[in-house]
């Protein structure tokens, strides 16, 4: 079945006797197993049963963003488009659901990577606004902090000349850089210390900053953490490559090593 066919599955099937809560439980269990096709199908069935259910909507946005992270390039645009659509529907249904803003921000962040000029600037401001809304509703939202950390690291990697040119031609560039990135990523880690991505992003930030001892420590700790989402598998490979290239001969990461 094509991706588009899967996304339309909920509209094509008759309503299941299982209630929305039951379908969501099935979907959540598949999500934790990292069985994304099964999770996607069950979330769609839950939404088909209750078309305005905000929990189904934000969880659909989440699963589509996570599928994007490991999808073939030809599927990525469609996945993000649907993720953004479901997040907007969640917010339209109830703007007080923090997760709707979080996963809208995530979809905008990935779209910004492939955009350019004024569109990239628009998406950048959008993702910052959505993470601010999410954090106002849920100050313990580690995902929004992690998104902001990654964005500010990218902003820190742009030279003042590049920022000046961008501001001249496309408008106001968001403020921020390495310092804001470190603050956001450390906050994400304090809220969810067992998430590999947060430690990995902090390690890469420290490499960019030339803080090599801290970078190695963060990356080695990231490598000891469990795989929780599909993109953790390629992330583990990248961590191994970084440790080998940046810190050759330093030994293998140990589960006993402390984190950031």
Would you give an account of this structure?
The chain is mostly helical and 260 residues long. It has a domain at 1-51. The protein is built from 14 helices and no strands. It starts with a helix and ends in a 14-residue tail after the last helix.
Mean pLDDT: 87
Q: How are helices and strands ordered from N to C?
A: HHHHHHHHHHHHHH
| Structural classification | mainly alpha
Distance between the termini: 43 Å
Report the strand count: 0
Low-confidence stretches: 10-15, 159-170, 254-259
User: Helix share of residues?
Assistant: over 70%
SS field, number of helical segments: 14
Characterize the largest beta sheet: strand count, sense, and whether it forms a barrel.
Answer: none
What Rg do the Cα atoms give?
19 Å
State the shape.
globular
Classify the beta-strand content into a percent band.
under 5%
């Amino acid at each position: 079945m094509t991706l588009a066919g899967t996304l339309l599955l909920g509209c094509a099937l008759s309503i299941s006797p299982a209630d929305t809560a039951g379908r969501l439980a099935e979907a959540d269990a598949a999500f934790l197993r990292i069985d994304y096709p099964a999770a996607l199908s069950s979330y769609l069935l839950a939404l088909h049963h209750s078309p305005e259910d905000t929990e189904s909507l934000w969880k659909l946005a989440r699963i589509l963003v996570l599928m994007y992270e490991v999808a073939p390039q030809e599927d990525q645009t469609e996945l993000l488009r649907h993720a953004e659509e479901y997040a907007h529907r969640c917010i339209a249904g109830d703007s007080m659901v923090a997760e709707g803003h979080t996963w809208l921000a995530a979809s905008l962040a990935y779209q910004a990577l492939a955009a350019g000029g004024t569109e990239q600037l628009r998406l950048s401001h959008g993702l910052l606004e959505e993470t601010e809304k999410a954090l106002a509703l849920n100050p313990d939202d580690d995902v929004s902090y992690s998104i902001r950390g990654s964005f500010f690291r990218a902003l820190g990697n742009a030279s003042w000349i590049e920022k000046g040119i961008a501001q001249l031609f496309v408008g106001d560039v968001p403020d921020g850089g390495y310092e804001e990135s470190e603050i956001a990523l450390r906050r994400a880690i304090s809220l969810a210390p067992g998430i590999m991505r947060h430690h990995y992003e902090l390690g890469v930030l420290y490499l960019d900053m030339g803080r090599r001892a801290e970078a190695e420590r963060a990356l080695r700790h990231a490598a000891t953490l469990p795989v929780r989402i599909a993109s953790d598998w390629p992330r583990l490979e990248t961590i191994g490559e970084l440790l080998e290239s940046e810190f050759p001969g330093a030994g293998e990461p140990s589960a006993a090593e402390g984190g950031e």
